[in-house]
Amino acid sequence: MAWFLLFLAGLFEIGWAIGLKYTDGFTRPIPTGLTVVSMVTSVVLLGVAVKTLPMGTAYAVWTGIGTVGTVMLGICLLGDPATFVRLFCIGLIVAGIAGLKLVA
């Protein structure tokens, strides 16, 4: 259950990271509200997950999910560049997340 909550926390981290772009400097109320809710939800779920998971592992996986998801959505939604080097580096992050999951 803790790994599932950590995964959800990572998804909400993606939500707030992408949401920041749509807040337009926190001047748009609805995107700002959704971004803040996503931030709080992400941290609360992380807090629940670390009750049973090692802190370092949970934090690394949480930020890794957020990083990979944010980069991928940035490419798909925001026109960020999808160079070979960027995608290779994202692959390294995914490998690190998988490795941490296997040893925790």
TrEMBL record:
One GO CC annotation: plasma membrane
Gene Ontology BP annotations: xenobiotic detoxification by transmembrane export across the plasma membrane
Gene3D superfamilies to which the protein is assigned, alphabetical: 1.10.3730.20
Annotated GO MF terms: transmembrane transporter activity
Topology term for the membrane: Multi-pass membrane protein
Keywords linked to the UniProt accession: Cell membrane, Membrane, Transmembrane, Transmembrane helix, Transport
Subcellular location: Cell membrane
Bilayer-spanning residue ranges: 33-50, 57-78, 84-103
Stored PANTHER family: GUANIDINIUM EXPORTER, SMR FAMILY PROTON-DEPENDENT DRUG EFFLUX TRANSPORTER SUGE
Family of the protein in this entry: Belongs to the drug/metabolite transporter (DMT) superfamily. Small multidrug resistance (SMR) (TC 2.A.7.1) family. Gdx/SugE subfamily.
Protein name: Guanidinium exporter
